Amino acid sequence: MSVNIKLEFLGGLDVIFNSERYHKVTVPSTNASTPLILRDLIKYIVDNMIKDPKDIEVFIENDTIRPGILTLINDTDWELEGEEEYVLESGDVISFTSTLHGG
Amino acid sequence: MSVNIKLEFLGGLDVIFNSERYHKVTVPSTNASTPLILRDLIKYIVDNMIKDPKDIEVFIENDTIRPGILTLINDTDWELEGEEEYVLESGDVISFTSTLHGG
Amino acid sequence: TFEPSTSLTLEEYTRYGRQLTVSQFQSIPGQLSLKNSKILVIGAGGLGCPALLYLTGAGVGKIGIVDDDVVDISNVHRQVLHDTTRVGWFKAESAEWYLRRLNPNVDIQTYCYRLDPLNAFDIFQEYDLILDCTDSPHSRYLINDVACLTGKTIVSGSGVRTEGQLSILNFRNSGPCYRCFYPSPPPPNSVTSCKDGGVIGPVIGLVGVMMALEAIKVLTGWYTEETFKPFLGLYSGYDGLSQSWKCFKMRGKKKECIACGDASNEGKLTRELIQSGAIDYEVWCGVINYNVL
Amino acid sequence: TFEPSTSLTLEEYTRYGRQLTVSQFQSIPGQLSLKNSKILVIGAGGLGCPALLYLTGAGVGKIGIVDDDVVDISNVHRQVLHDTTRVGWFKAESAEWYLRRLNPNVDIQTYCYRLDPLNAFDIFQEYDLILDCTDSPHSRYLINDVACLTGKTIVSGSGVRTEGQLSILNFRNSGPCYRCFYPSPPPPNSVTSCKDGGVIGPVIGLVGVMMALEAIKVLTGWYTEETFKPFLGLYSGYDGLSQSWKCFKMRGKKKECIACGDASNEGKLTRELIQSGAIDYEVWCGVINYNVL
Ligand SMILES: [Zn+2]
Ligand SMILES: [Zn+2]
């Protein structure tokens, strides 16, 4: 079953997503018997939302989210929610934020 | 049918609610055939949540919310949502905020 | 006299370079908009101090400061533009002293007296944007009414104890005004001032900084009549995991508003009505007293 | 020498009266906690300026300021504690000049050189709380590592363009640290500084003011080991109806963290390791270079 997700790209990450911070996406099911997990969403984002292949390395390194980007599931650190194994539910808000260093 | 509502008392209004800004309440149905509306919630708050009768006039004047207090329904001004006639739904967040004047 | 400028000096490019490169600021046209703007900051206290610091830093062309109060030692913990050496000075002149050092490009004008129904119209007409940094409901109604009648947008902030509020009122004469939000003034006993209620310095400071940013957005054209949506922001310094901010979507302009609504409204305010003393701003927070008419 | 104080002078009661009466501030014990506290502010730039203004105003006993940079005209739009007349001064000394006027009760100590692995430990040991107001990832890793090894809490802020972030790290040695959040440094080409990216003055200013409030909360005991929950705040100056703030619930301390985790960890940092130069903070943002060991 597909799920409807709200995506947030914060801390300047929006530059690789058409300069839009907020997106609504419907992630299609890949297999009727297995629920969609966060790993599927990341693959969906890379395959469908990053227009310029050069930008993929801004978001992904070694097949996961690049160091310096935090992933949040419904306002909570993904480490507390199972990281890439987190089972997506319709209505979830998934945020990605690049770390800022300026001062 | 009863509804579950999240209440927020902001701008110092929490002082008459045990100094707690956030409350979860279940408003019981008064009549099975009529849906609960915001007016019922206000009556519920006055009857059940304001301990000290002297505090009622901080919240209510002429049978409605006192001038200087704004009422917000799911982050939107109640004037855009039907004011006291708004039909409550479980999960609604109703905020009341006293106006601040200091500077 | 204030001549509109169509270019930046080399000093200005250097001074403002870091903000100029941020796309939302609108680049050189954004800087020129600030340079050609005149803003009036009413109240040089907990809100006015940080707002003045950042707006002077950013390069607004002319800034008027209205405050009849003098610096007291109990102000300085939060009114950080004043310092201990200037206790006893008029706040407007104390602010001017530092702001001229901060950015000599900015034309600072001080008004060391109280804004009132008789002087407000002439002062407002000199400016493009009003910052309401005052601390009482009666001044908020007076500022609102005069701004509506002179066609000025207001950036309005307030705060007490650990909380603050922020709004833009009468945006380009098309957004709602203070009376649209609060048609009836609050009962006099319900009002808490900083003096009575106390206030944490960074809490009121944060609201003042937010006001500076909203003023920059208004002046640089970030908000247009199409994109501006009426809002009320609520900040709390001690809430949730650390601090909280909620931004509520608010009602539009009310046709029946006596300040900004249709001219045909019964009881619609006019300059003459306000200056006649018919509206008792001091005691009744802007209620019309028809007895004096 | 810094003698703990058990009472407030009459001047202090008057000066701090407005914050003392706010219940969250913890009244006189809260003020005494500030008076008896020593904080180190690293970086007197866009974050440090407002943080220093409000913390000096609030009456922290001793404030150290570390910055090797000098005031440039391009700083002044956002670094409002410096002014045009002090361009060319060390930022730490320019800050000191104004802060002493603001509140002569506060003991200001300046360090007009760069924080590095050799000097950091001795400086940190003089203070109770560290404010990281720096502008590069390598200084953030260095500050984090030294704070963890000397047992200091860090209030950490950052910002660029229109956004900012806020966190409390290594809270009382029990909360997570910067390396718990970011075990691997970002690729060097992914880092944008204010110089490259630009920054809106009130945006970075707001984060600095928030840092001051978080520092006050830590020092006055508002947060305890029971009530503190790790968080990361994200501010955006141009978002939603006006401005936005999200506060995320974050992971706890990681046992395997090389800075704050169990002492038995392989590769666990020590003062000796850091001072030997084995960790290349400048180029690799705190990656251990085992070749030099
Ligand atoms: Zn109106
Ligand atoms: Zn750690």
UniProtKB/TrEMBL annotation, chains A, B:
GO BP: any one term: tRNA wobble uridine modification
UniProt xrefs under InterPro entries: Beta-grasp_dom_sf, Mopterin_synth/thiamin_S_b, Urm1
Pathway: tRNA modification; 5-methoxycarbonylmethyl-2-thiouridine-tRNA biosynthesis
Function in brief: Acts as a sulfur carrier required for 2-thiolation of mcm(5)S(2)U at tRNA wobble positions of cytosolic tRNA(Lys), tRNA(Glu) and tRNA(Gln). Serves as sulfur donor in tRNA 2-thiolation reaction by being thiocarboxylated (-COSH) at its C-terminus by the MOCS3 homolog UBA4. The sulfur is then transferred to tRNA to form 2-thiolation of mcm(5)S(2)U. Prior mcm(5) tRNA modification by the elongator complex is required for 2-thiolation. Also acts as a ubiquitin-like protein (UBL) that is covalently conjugated via an isopeptide bond to lysine residues of target proteins such as AHP1.
Similarity section: Belongs to the URM1 family.
Processing after translation: C-terminal thiocarboxylation occurs in 2 steps, it is first acyl-adenylated (-COAMP) via the hesA/moeB/thiF part of UBA4, then thiocarboxylated (-COSH) via the rhodanese domain of UBA4.
Domain of life of the source: Eukaryota
Compartments, record wording: Cytoplasm
Main location: cytoplasm
Protein name: Ubiquitin-related modifier 1
Gene (UniProt): URM1
Cross-link (Glycyl lysine isopeptide (Gly-Lys) (interchain with K-? in acceptor proteins)): G103
